[in-house]
Write a structure and sequence with these properties.
By secondary structure, this protein is of the alpha/beta class. The protein has a single domain (about 5-125), classed as 3-Layer(aba) Sandwich (Rossmann fold). It contains six helices and five strands, in the order βαβαβαβαβαα. The chain has helices at about 15-30, 40-50, 65-75, 90-100, 110, 115-125, and strands at about 5-10, 30-35, 55-60, 80-85, 105. It is globular.
């Protein structure tokens, strides 16, 4: 029996980091289908055309903030579990993103290796 694909959206403007995220996630779970976007509007377009379950959102994007994309997701796609990823990991950002509905906030500088486990827990939380 085939396991259904789990759809992840990665919105990260640094292609090297985006590629590393895809590699990390697919190494642990080959059944994950990763969509990548490098800006707010690319992410929004994917959200409008694909059935996304988990979104990894960088805060600093070239066109609009990842926080704005978080708000968009929570308004139009509240079933999507959003995880914020940033090098700007101040308590202010963490608290604000949680208040806006982020499942987790990950500091890319210090917590990058935790991302696959957090994505796994996000899928488990959304299934229950």
């Amino acid at each position: 029996m085939l396991t259904p694909k789990k759809n992840i959206l990665i919105v990260e403007d640094t292609r090297v980091i985006s590629d590393m995220l895809v590699e990390m996630l697919k190494e642990k779970h080959p059944d994950y289908l990763c969509y990548t976007a490098y800006s707010y509007f690319e992410g929004q377009d994917i959200l409008n055309h694909q059935d996304i379950e988990v979104a990894l959102l960088d805060i600093n994007l070239p066109d609009k903030s990842g926080i704005e994309l978080l708000k968009y997701i929570k308004h139009f796609y509240p079933h999507i579990t959003a995880i914020m990823i940033s090098n700007s990991a101040s308590e202010t950002y963490r608290n604000y993103c949680k208040k806006e509905g982020a499942y987790q906030f990950i500091d890319k500088s210090n917590e990058f290796e935790t991302i696959p486990g957090i994505v796994d827990s996000a899928f488990m939380a959304s299934a229950s």
